[in-house]
Amino acid sequence: MDATMMDAMSAEMKMPGMEMMDMAAMQACMDACSACEQACTVCSMQMMDCAPACMNCADMCNTMMRAMLRMQGMTPAAMMAMLDACIAMCQTCMDECMQHAENSDVCRMCAQACKSCMDACMAMRESMVKMAS
Amino acid sequence: MDATMMDAMSAEMKMPGMEMMDMAAMQACMDACSACEQACTVCSMQMMDCAPACMNCADMCNTMMRAMLRMQGMTPAAMMAMLDACIAMCQTCMDECMQHAENSDVCRMCAQACKSCMDACMAMRESMVKMAS
Amino acid sequence: MDATMMDAMSAEMKMPGMEMMDMAAMQACMDACSACEQACTVCSMQMMDCAPACMNCADMCNTMMRAMLRMQGMTPAAMMAMLDACIAMCQTCMDECMQHAENSDVCRMCAQACKSCMDACMAMRESMVKMAS
Amino acid sequence: MDATMMDAMSAEMKMPGMEMMDMAAMQACMDACSACEQACTVCSMQMMDCAPACMNCADMCNTMMRAMLRMQGMTPAAMMAMLDACIAMCQTCMDECMQHAENSDVCRMCAQACKSCMDACMAMRESMVKMAS
User: InterPro entries given for it (chains A, B, C, D) (predicted)?
Assistant: First the structure.
């Protein structure tokens, strides 16, 4: 999402039970989820081995990104659980794709996108823990 | 999914790291996720209060259902994390919709679909713990 | 969607510009889309040849089903265009899976689910043309 | 999708029956679909009037973007039909959101994202017609 839209839209993005959100962490997390969905979708089409993990990861990343665009319908507990699920799914997909990374540029890039998405979800999670305390 | 298709397809539904799956629990869980996605999608369109939670729940339920149809790309850890996320999201949506249940049949039915989905996800989770041990 | 929920929810399902909808045709179409999404999701995981068509078909069927659950946000023209897209995508997937139907029960069932979904979308389309005239 | 990934992945993006694709038009179209999905998702959460059209548009845009990432599973006819459906859905959402554009920055930006997506889908469609002839 571009910065102008993010500014205009951020007033809509308030989670009940969390007064403050780290909007920079959230923007980075949404962008990483979106990039990961795209990389996984392409990667799933080139090799049978990684297809199931890649599509599961693409769906989870899309669901995660949308949930960040709909903060009003989250609670801190649900958000944490979804971030954990997204991290676990990215880990699963990265582990699978790393096995083919030497032979396939697409797998290598998919694994990188999964790693970036995991990192961004972890940073988002930490920012929520910090702001809640 | 109807029973004939489930039988034919269940050979595809094997998770690495889990030799046995409780296929009856999985079928019940997929059906509950699908019903919950549909109920939440309708419910989200009738009242601003529940829209965000309902759409987050609909997306998570669809992602969960699809992951059960693509077991080859899961690990037990990722599956557990996704079931937890689905349970947390159903809880959030049910809590919201229960507040409007007296005034709205749609909200009441949505809350019931969320409750059924939570129960089915918990049963699925328990069956995995039992079979893993 | 079960019949009780459909009855309670059908008051929400009104498309601007279409006074009457054939609710039986719509229910049948939503059920066929949902079944097709599930069959395509499983089928996409077993063979590289059909994976891309199956996943495109699964996504289109889910989008189509959800649009029928959110009639308030459709126009007759957009609805017709989406039904045409769903029919075209089911045709593409069915053609692909029919090539493997002799060797794979999953492909054969996926092709059948695509055929049923096409038929249900065509019936829905015809009911709209009839009611509009 | 960033340019490096697009280069590496474009070898996977071949549609049967279309020897050449305008990759620049496709990249622009995918980016516009992704931006439109995000804008519509936020916009759907702020006002009951536009919620159904916005969510239908978000789902269609995501399905369209994914289909472009899975060209191997498309045919020219299915691709055209999906582009038409995406254009019709963006038009419906834009028309709705334009009615609230004076009072809501989010609606105005959503309408702009729908307009950009329509334009990019039309350009993609024209590039296909040109290359097919």
Answer: Csp_YhjQ
Through-space distance between the first and last CA atoms of chain A, rounded to whole angstroms: 29
CATH for B57:
1.20.1270.360
Q: Does the residue A33 lie in any domain?
A: yes
Report yes or no on A63 lying in a domain. Answer: yes
pLDDT tens-digit readout, A81-133: 999 999 999 999 999 999 999 999 999 999 999 999 999 999 999 999 998 77
Whether residue A5 lies inside any domain: the answer is: no
Q: How far is A87 from chain B (nearest CA, A)?
A: 9
pLDDT single digits (tens) C119-131: 999 999 999 999 8
Q: Is the distance from CB of C72 to CB of B45 less than 8 angstroms?
A: yes
Chains that touch D (3 or more CB pairs under 8 A): A, B, C
pLDDT above 80 (res D56): yes
- For chain D, give the mean pLDDT: 92
Q: Please give, rounded to a whole number of angstroms, the shortest distance from the CA of D50 to a CA of chain B.
A: 10
Number of domains in chain C: 1
What is the CA B122 to chain-centroid distance, rounded?
9
Note whether D92 contacts C78, CB cutoff 8 Å.
yes
A17: left (phi over 0), alpha (psi -120 to 50) or beta: left
CB contact under 8 A, A1 and D73: no
In a domain, B88, yes or no: yes
pLDDT single digits (tens) D29-46? 999 999 999 999 999 988
Q: D92 — contact with chain C (CB < 8 Å)?
A: yes
Tell me which of B40, B42, B44 to substitute to probe the interface with D (most D C-beta atoms closer than 10 Å). Answer: B44
Q: Which two tokens stand for residue B127?
A: 């069956």
User: What gap in Å lies between CA C69 and CA D115, rounded to an integer?
Assistant: 25
Q: Do D41 and A66 touch (CB under 8 A)?
A: yes
ipTM of predicted complex = 0.94
Give the structural domain span for D110: 22-132
The set of chains that have 3 or more CB pairs under 8 A with B is A, C, D
CB contact at 8 A, A97 and A115: no
Give CA angle at A36 (D34, A68), nearest 5°.
Answer: 65
Alpha helices, H only, chain C = 3-9, 23-43, 51-69, 76-98, 105-132
Could you count the other beta carbons within 10 Å of the beta carbon of residue C17? 11
Which one has a higher pLDDT value, B49 or B78? Answer: B78
